[in-house]
User: What shape does this take?
Amino acid sequence: MKKFTKELTYKTSRSSGAGGQNVNKVETAVTVMWKPSETAHFSAEEIELISQKLKNRINLEGILQLTVSESRTQLQNKKIATEKVIELVNKALIKPKIRKPTKPSKRQVEKRIQTKKQLSEKKENRKFRF
Assistant: This one.
């Protein structure tokens, strides 16, 4: 987990939705922006991984953007936005485990076939014959 908060830039705007005068007057929504390609905290491989996994959130200029307007205060929204960006990037850096395909053992296969035969026999014996 790397701290790259010094590279983040913030922009404020008016929040949407209910809130009356507070929404109409105060710029409480915070947009956090970060350019993964210009970071000094990650290696080229990590930047590539971040760009791949977060490609839906990165715009054409290569900027990762996230807008938060959950709280009534700008400071709280800034804190939430920073935490969310850090969480997103850290999740993107996690490499999934490679699945190793396995085969069932001979004993398991034989047991399954034997069980199927027993069930088939049981059902066959239920049939009414003239």
About this structure: The mean pLDDT is 86.
